[in-house]
Amino acid sequence: MKISYFATIFTAAIVTLGLATSCGNSDSNTATPNTAATASASPTAVKNTNPTAVKTDKALPNVFYSEGGVAIRGTDPVAYFTQNKPVKGNPEFTHKWGNATWQFASAQNRDLFAKNPEKYAPQYGGFCAWAVSQGYTASTDPDAWKIDHGKLYLNYNSAVQWGWEKDVSGNVAKGDKNWPALAKDKDKK
User: Fold this and answer.
1) pLDDT tens for residues 21-77?
2) How do beta strands 52-54 and 66-67 pair?
3) Dist. CA 89–CA 75, nearest whole Å
4) Which of 34, 93, 101, 135 has the highest CB neighbour number within 10 Å of its CB?
């Protein structure tokens, strides 16, 4: 009984520490990877780069996190919806939307995206959904993802994703409230 109780407390402390430190801070465009938190299922280290700002909506700028000008680290955004998993895009199949280059696994996926990029592009400009719910931005890992109500959300790593999923609707509501100001701030940079 005592061991189980302490194990629960220890696990909660580790997860809380991982969530608190994984997503950087409000002055940062990217976060420093927390290697202890990335031990779970999928994510790997994140390169520090700056986002690319793009205007596609008159009311709210569309700001995309990209590395080297490539969105989602070259992962095909359509594949999340059609194959229910992240699939590496092929540089042969690209589409320029705004100031970001999007890569796709096939010409068919590229064409689907080109017809309706808002349907397939990740929410919050591809920045960490948990960080946006907390009022700042952080980089993301294409393997830390979820589709909720037909929208793609990315997170910094699987540990942060796990914490974010504990209250998806609450975190989305906070993210939706915070994103307009964050997007406008990113658009100024």
Assistant:
1) 445 443 333 333 332 233 333 333 333 333 333 333 445 567 789 999 999 999 999
2) unpaired
3) 5
4) 34
CA 161 to chain centre: 9
* Distance of alpha carbon 57 from alpha carbon 37, whole angstroms: 36
Distance, CA of 185 to chain centre: 18
Q: Which residue has the tokens 């406008």?
A: 184
Contacts of residue 179, Cβ cutoff 8 Å, sequence gap at least 6:
60, 123, 124, 125, 132
Q: How far apart are alpha carbons 15 and 103 in whole angstroms?
A: 33
**Amino acid in position 54:** V
At 13, give phi and psi (nearest 5°): -65, -40
Cα–Cα dist 81/69, whole Å:
23
> What backbone phi and psi angles, to 5 degrees, belong to 37?
-80, -20
What CA–CA distance (Å, rounded) separates 70 from 136?
A: 21
